[in-house]
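re: the backbone from monday

yeah here it is again, tokenized this time
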């Protein structure tokens, strides 16, 4: 059900870290304003709040997609359901960040406006950032360039050894993530904003019925404890930086 803003702010102050707030998709202006007042009042003045609207609105596995899409259609932002979704998401992100900045007043530069998007589809970020010149009103585009996600979709992966799994990760899978990073970095560079990651890393997890496959689970568990995973992460994060990525959560 989430964690109270009071706890998030207190934790950020204790560890001296910039907090990231994901505002619920149904939050109205008053909710956003009250949240902003709370954050400004209690967050240490040296810290910058990252402010994002909802979580993965592009992900059909979450109910917010339909709700946000319906709002876009209701407001006539497009008759196309896909464009209505991303245009409203973009518009509401900007509105929400604007409220935070109004509350912060002379300290509004502390507020980092985040536009969430999908790593594997830079077209989404293009639609969001270019709608009503939203790129001029946010600081960053955030993606989740995971690697290894495709392995959890079939139980046949359970027949691989750990060495064979890593062979495939290094030969083909990591390159997919690098291509996503490059594509999104090209977009953000052209618009003069930062590319950041709201999540990421390895995604060795069973999907659907594979989630209950003991053989696959054991393979993934062993792979995560293998030194080769450290090698994969080192390469992955180096490529993220080399291709233009900034903050990686």
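seq for it, each position gets an aa:
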């Amino acid at each position: 059900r989430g964690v109270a803003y009071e706890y998030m702010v207190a934790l950020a102050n204790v560890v001296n870290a910039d907090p990231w707030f994901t505002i619920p998709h149904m939050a109205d202006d008053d909710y956003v304003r009250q949240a902003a007042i709370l954050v400004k009042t209690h967050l240490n003045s040296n810290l910058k709040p990252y402010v994002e609207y909802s979580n993965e609105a592009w992900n059909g596995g979450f109910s917010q997609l339909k709700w946000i899409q319906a709002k876009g259609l209701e407001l006539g932002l497009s008759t196309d359901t896909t464009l209505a979704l991303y245009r409203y998401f973009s518009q509401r992100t900007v509105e929400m960040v604007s409220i935070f900045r109004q509350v912060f007043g002379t300290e509004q530069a502390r507020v980092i406006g985040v536009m969430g998007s999908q790593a594997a589809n830079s077209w989404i970020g293009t639609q969001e950032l270019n709608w009503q010149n939203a790129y001029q009103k946010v600081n960053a585009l955030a993606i989740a360039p995971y690697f290894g996600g495709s392995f959890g979709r079939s139980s046949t992966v359970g027949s691989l050894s750990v060495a064979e799994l890593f062979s495939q990760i290094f030969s083909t899978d990591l390159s997919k993530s690098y291509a996503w990073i490059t594509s999104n970095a090209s977009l953000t560079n052209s618009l003069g904003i930062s590319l950041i990651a709201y999540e990421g890393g390895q995604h060795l997890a069973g999907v659907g019925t594979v989630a209950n496959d003991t053989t696959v689970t054991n393979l993934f568990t062993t792979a995560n404890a293998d030194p080769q995973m450290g090698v994969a992460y080192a390469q992955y994060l180096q490529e993220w930086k080399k291709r233009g990525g900034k903050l990686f959560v």
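Helices lie at 5-15, 29-42, 64-74, 81-104, 122-130, 162-191, 214-224, 227-242. The CA atoms of residues 23 and 67 lie 15 Å apart.
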